[in-house]
């Protein structure tokens, strides 16, 4: 008496991974996500490995998780994978205050982000 399985929201040749509550602003995370969109996964991993951005390590872990999901859960060939989507969402914002001069206070916002990476298997070009 269980519920029927929910249909898959992705195509059969796609796999995804989600990294939640990353401690970086969505604007900064989107700069790193733009770096890998549309690239082959091996090139994207190399770009993230040598990126100077702090958050590139977490993006790389999420991409590796998407690759592992594609290989283990969906039987896709990792040599033919391309990063088809990498989108960033806003999460909560922690608000802090710092004392300023003349009895005033300054607001400090500490935003968090979500990252979703979708990889797709593309057929190798016939040569």
From TrEMBL:
The gene is rplV. Pfam families: Ribosomal_L22. It comes from Rhodoplanes roseus. GO terms for cellular component: cytosolic large ribosomal subunit. Part of the 50S ribosomal subunit. GO terms for biological process: translation. The keyword Ribonucleoprotein applies. InterPro entries: Ribosomal_uL22 (IPR001063), Ribosomal_uL22_bac/chlpt-type (IPR005727), Ribosomal_uL22_bac/org-type (IPR047867), Ribosomal_uL22_CS (IPR018260), Ribosomal_uL22_sf (IPR036394). GO terms for molecular function: rRNA binding; structural constituent of ribosome. It comes from the Bacteria. This is Large ribosomal subunit protein uL22. Belongs to the universal ribosomal protein uL22 family. The globular domain of the protein is located near the polypeptide exit tunnel on the outside of the subunit, while an extended beta-hairpin is found that lines the wall of the exit tunnel in the center of the 70S ribosome. This protein binds specifically to 23S rRNA; its binding is stimulated by other ribosomal proteins, e.g., L4, L17, and L20. It is important during the early stages of 50S assembly. It makes multiple contacts with different domains of the 23S rRNA in the assembled 50S subunit and ribosome. Keywords: Ribonucleoprotein, Ribosomal protein, RNA-binding, rRNA-binding. The lineage of its organism: Bacteria, Pseudomonadati, Pseudomonadota, Alphaproteobacteria, Hyphomicrobiales.
């Amino acid at each position: 008496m269980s519920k029927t399985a929910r249909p898959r929201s992705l195509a059969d040749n796609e796999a995804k991974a989600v990294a939640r509550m990353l401690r970086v602003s969505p604007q900064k995370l989107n700069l790193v996500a733009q770096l890998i969109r549309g690239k082959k996964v091996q090139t994207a991993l190399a770009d993230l490995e040598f990126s100077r951005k702090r958050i590139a390590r977490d993006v790389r872990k999420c991409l590796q998780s998407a690759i592992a999901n594609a290989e283990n859960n969906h039987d896709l060939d990792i040599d033919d994978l391309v990063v088809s989507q990498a989108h960033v969402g806003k999460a909560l914002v922690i608000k802090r205050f710092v004392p300023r001069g003349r009895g005033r206070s300054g607001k400090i916002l500490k935003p968090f982000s979500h990252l979703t990476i979708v990889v797709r298997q593309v057929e190798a070009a016939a040569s």
